[in-house]
Amino acid sequence: MNKPAAVLWMVAALLLPCAPACAADVPVPRNYGDAMRWYERAAEAGNAEAQFYLGVLYETGVRGPDLATAADWFRRAAEQGHLEAQIKLAQAYLQGRGVSRDVGEAARWFRAAAEAGSAEAQYNMGVLHERGLGVPPDAGEAVKWYERASDGGLAQARLNLSLIYAMGNGVEPSPVTAYMWLKMANDSGLRVSEAYREDLARQLTPEEIAAAEREAHERLSASGEPR
């Protein structure tokens, strides 16, 4: 980050939560409008964090709302590798908010964020591959991305994996594996259908249920998640 952009960002950050503390030699904005002008200056100077926050403000209506301008600021920040901006831009393309709907572009930006480690984006890549939206339908890719999202603690990814293995959607059906993923989803706080759990349990022996529960416990223990 160049020095002028950094200084401008610290000035704008004064009136927003979760922002870094301001340097002692930077003047304090007199009001919110003054802070917004500093934000815009920092964003124009190339500060990705300021660009992202301007996008959020335009999107939420604090300054409009103006979805097209929001998407433009998200794009500028996303092109600099700002992970949250990449997700916002992907969502904009997926929903056609401020840009023409383009699931291919949505997939491109979700992938960028997913490869940078976002569990939310990894989950969305799983959904896109499972449904063939913006990418070729590919159960193997869906499983891969859901598993990465699961590693990031996303319970919904675990439920989706359970459903994939229960129904055999592009994979070999496995009620044991389905039950294991369902157990993990449930133990990580997601409310799951009791009827679905009972249906899986009827397909398994007590020994298979115990094995599935043991593997779920071991995976959660290895991840350090509370159970």
Helix content: 55-70%
- As a whole number of angstroms, the C-alpha radius of gyration is 22 Å
Percent range for β-strand residues: under 5%
Number of helices: 12
Largest sheet: none
Explain what the structure shows.
By secondary structure, the chain is mostly helical. Among the domains are: 1-46, no CATH class; 154-227, no CATH class. 67% of the residues lie in helices and 0% in strands. The protein has helices spanning 3-12, 32-44, 48-60, 67-78, 83-95, 103-115, 119-131, 139-151, 155-167, 175-187, 194-202, 206-223. The longest helix is centred in the C-terminal third of the chain and has 18 residues, at 206-223.
Give the key terms.
227 residues, mainly alpha, 12 helices
Write the layout of secondary structure elements.
Layout: H1 3-12, H2 32-44, H3 48-60, H4 67-78, H5 83-95, H6 103-115, H7 119-131, H8 139-151, H9 155-167, H10 175-187, H11 194-202, H12 206-223
